[in-house]
What we know:
- This protein has helices at 11-23, 34-44, 60-68, 86-93, 107-117, 152-168, 190-196, 219-226, 240-248, 289-297, 316-326, 363-367, 386-394, 407-417, 433-438, 452-465, 482-490, 503-518; strands at 3-7, 27-31, 48-52, 78-81, 97-101, 132-138, 141-147, 175-180, 212-216, 235-237, 249-258, 266-268, 272-273, 279-281, 302-307, 348-350, 372-373, 398-404, 421-427, 443-447, 472-477, 495-498.
- It is of the alpha/beta class.
- Mean pLDDT is 80; it is low at 310-367 and 380-384.
Amino acid sequence: MALIHLMHPDRFFGAFLSQYLNLQGFETLCTDSNIECFYSINKNKPNLIVLNKESPYLDIEGFLIKKRNTEKIEDIPIFVIGDFSPKEIAHFKTLHVEAFLSKRINPVALTERLRLYFKIPLPAPEKRTPMLVDIHAKESTLIIQIEANLESDKLLILNFRIRLFLQEKKSRTPRIMFIIPSLYPDMVNKTTVSQLFGFLDFGELKIDPLKIVVLTSNKHFLDTMASLSKLSTIRVVKDYYEGYRSITADFDLETKVALDYIKVGSRYFLDLFDTKNTVRLAAQQTMTEDLLKALKQEGVRYLKYYGKKAASTVNDTDIIASVEESESQTGTDESGPKDDETLLELLVTSDSDHGFSLLDTTTMDYITSDFVPVSAELFDEQVLNEKQNLFFSKDRGQPLLFVSLNTGLFELVQQALSVYFDIENIQAGANIKPMLDAKRYGIIFIDLSIPQEIVVKILHVIRSHATRRKTTIILMAKTVGKAELMTYKKYGTDHVILHPFTTEKFYNKVYTAVTLDRGM
């Protein structure tokens, strides 16, 4: 088993990468500074060091020089994470850096890169349905829907996303409703169910079990969950309303609703209390004309619920203000709300003509109507969909040719694509014809810092050997004018990647360019 030392200044991300690599069969050590890393590798001597370009206390150049002058560790290979210019790449290569990894390193790509480096056979592609995840958020509340399978690596990524979300919201108490419509039983076991709730072990969080609920009727999942003592306090709810009430209700937050704003036919997700904390309108019960009349006769000016007020509701501020202003006055405001006003959007439905329609088949859509989908773009390549993954897996090991005078730029392409392609480099001006005679390159990159007349000659030679259906040409440029592009199109290509060059750009452009050229 290869021992890998990870140094990443973000200790949460470093811990996540370490856990992910452990799942993939690697042994890892992790530190969050180059100084700690240096002392650790002297003690443990790993098979590979993965550094970060940005590090406190000792910069990467100082680390590399110090390592080069320490006989015990000077030969340990190094990968570096960060954003690099071609000039920096050329410089760090002289300090024996083996590979340069994107700053937004994808753990899947890193694993494949390590397997190739250590000559570990890649696993066969999984044939089962992948784990499907849909996440919506509002303020610090998450609704997470999971279907099909529970997969350890994706559960680890899900927990990391939860951690990042709570960090961003500056929240220590997660409010999460898990919705699990269906799962294949073969992947539901104590290990995967425990991994689903891995965030419970994040030391910086203060867990309130009442704010984490599960909505599912999957018996195998429920039985497995019940067998894990650490999950005994997690609440299982019978429907959306009970779950949403549990994570929304907060008895430290009192919100008042002026009685004049409560209409006959209104229903609320949370109980409404009077000033004596007696429930006057239970959650999901309909406000009747008789009850509303009785409350007014009692002189009740407002009811209250316990939870955050709906931030997206236009009238909410006005409601609170009108209550506070009227508390010191007698009588009530006779004007009342207009018929078309929407009150407390996520907490109330008032549609007496349609009965319970808003609370039936469209409940999930209704509950999440003002929630925002949580982006999955944590890493490069996260934009890859299933078709793209299949495409790159199928083309693994195919030859790719890079034409340039810039070795640093070649390193960028190699850094991004060598996981999937066998990349060769040829200096601009060299005779490309023998290479094309000997081998068919599915993709050829050309650096447009080469003079235009040479680029045109290269394009002519390539196209005399292969059509676009066989070979895709992708140009790389800092800028490209319209006239230049028209010339390059005339000679057989209109695929261009513009600076800044990122792994994400390389993957998207290769996929779209090749599929267009092949008519896929």
